[in-house]
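Bench log. Compound arrived from synthesis this morning; before running ITC I wanted a structural hypothesis for how pyridoxal-5'-phosphate sits in the protein. Inputs:
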Amino acid sequence: MLLNTNISPSIDLKKDHFFDHKAKDSYQEYIYKASKQVMSFLENKDFYSGETAANLRAKTNLLSVSNNVTLTIDEALEEVKELYLDHAISFHNPNYVAHLNCPVLLPAIVGDVIASSVNTAVETWDQSTSATLIEQEVIRWISTKMHLPSTSDGVFTSGGTQSNFMGLLMARDHYAFVHYGLNIKQNGWASIISKFRIFCSEKAHFSIQKNSALLGMGYDAVIPVKTDSLMKMNPNELVIAIEKEKQKGNIPIAVVATVGTTDFGSFDPLEAISKIVKEEKIWLHVDGAYGGCYALTKTHKHLLAGTANADSVTIDFHKTLFQPVCSSVFLVKNKKHFKYVSHYADYLNPLESKDEVYPNLIEKSIQTTRRFDALKVWFSLKMTGEKTIASFLEKVHFLALELYTKIKDDLYFEVIHKPELSTLVFRYKEQGIEDNNIHDAINLYIKNTLFKSGQASVASTRVDGKIYLKFTLLNPVTEITDLMRIVDMIKEKGQSYKTNN
Ligand SMILES: Cc1ncc(COP(=O)(O)O)c(C=O)c1O
């Protein structure tokens, strides 16, 4: 039977939609036009258009990808503007002070465009060549900042949650191997693991509990340790918590110390915790997703000296190195521990081809196909430089302190901590009202009305059962006058609550 080689006569290979040598002109044109359209996003005055979810959902013609109509680059860019760029949240806008999203550096964007265009996948040498070396160099650079020894190594991950996952996985598998000869990777679950316990501050990120559940140990394996008045883990409480669990027949395997808690930016005392961990002979994971990059600064580097004692560390460059998402690293003091995640696949990285000269980064990662996220960091360090980045971090810290000084004695506010990093948690207080439920309602009203109107985005959180507002400052271009304008808006909304409710 003859094969019909003309099965798809409608394909137009001249359309230049592939990135290849024929498409140089189109590549330049598309990237140029795309960057022009992105500039329209930079012209948005507010941090958000304030468009409702219902109105955005109603743009069904724009949303739909199933009507089989293909567009030109100009038409597609017009649609992306109307559907997305006009309503995207601007993290660079001074009125955005909600979550841990940073404005990004231009060199990082350039690095990202190059990495996406070339589409390097960094899992094996034969897909990545010098991209592997660039990732290794960035890992070496940050490991040195974290005071980790030459036995250390690391890998880029999708974020702090995944980096924390790797820390807990290694802690679990290492303890099981050393104390019970168990090989969880090979043989799976053993009943003794249900007694394993992980200790972290009550202010630690929820990913510790979530990852414990994903690793089969459950939320209950995570023991929250009380914090002191500065929101830092209290080492005496850690000792008490460990003893209590031992008395119940449970087995402490790890402590997670947070350097830069999500809400308060507080640093757990690494030196004191390290001593306890050493005595207990258990794993120390340091969650530096938020505060890790402050090792570059003069103001905070002393608080991170104790990372030298960590078995593993999480750092998010997409929070505090001004990188686009995703950009996070997981570091481990003894690179041999990567054996708990390594796998050798015949088609990809066969064990017999293992070679130090041609390394396959997949041996250190829980992902297989993986983006070349190190390039944007490399570009930023080359062009902006670590000293300037450190000064940005110091600036946002001082900004948080200045805001604290300005509002701490204001009768309309209750401020519950002095910022150690770049967040401020406080709440609006209506004079003469003592009922916390009313204050909760007012503060949520303030947050929601500011967001919906596109005026400002402020976060909220719950502390001791009460709702508070939170400023997270990651934009070094922001000035105190910008923040005080938001403070005035908060007061105005707070005062209008009664009228509108
Ligand atoms: C302290 C801390 N750890 C971990 C994470 C999780 O990081 P990611 O969102 O990159 O997964 C966060 C996120 O805010 C965090 O604040």
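What the model suggests: The mean pLDDT is 95. The two ends are 78 Å apart (CA to CA).
ITC booked for Thursday regardless.
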